[in-house]
Write a structure and sequence with these properties.
Length: about 110
């Protein structure tokens, strides 16, 4: 599977749920490529914007779509990494803001 195939497959699943890909493909496609790299590396699509531990159980909260996406999109219009957002955000109708990290410090691997 390549990034375009992943984009096409996820779009069909996520848009009916109200989650839209970032309209900036220069950002979206590299994020999708990174998800595929993480899937090959770890066996699951860990968020490319966070450091994965390498074990599914430790990283469960950051497997894309991460468990923080819903709250991020609801509050800020987009998720932490900027892959998903509302339709207005994806279409550039609302201003992008920096989304703070919601992942608890004790789960972040340094």
């Amino acid at each position: 599977m390549n990034a375009q195939q992943l984009f096409d497959a996820l779009k069909k699943i996520q848009e009916p749920k109200g989650y839209y890909f970032n309209g900036d493909m220069t950002m979206t496609m590299p994020l999708l490529e990174s998800l595929l790299i993480n899937k090959e590396r770890f066996g699951y699509m860990a968020c490319p914007c966070r450091l994965a531990n390498g074990t599914f159980e430790a990283d469960r909260d950051i497997v894309c779509p991460c468990e923080y996406r819903e709250a991020d999109v609801k509050e800020f219009g987009a998720c932490f990494c900027g892959l998903y957002g509302t339709q207005d955000w994806a279409e550039g109708k609302t201003e992008s803001v920096v989304v703070p990290e919601r992942r608890p410090v004790e789960k972040i691997q340094w």
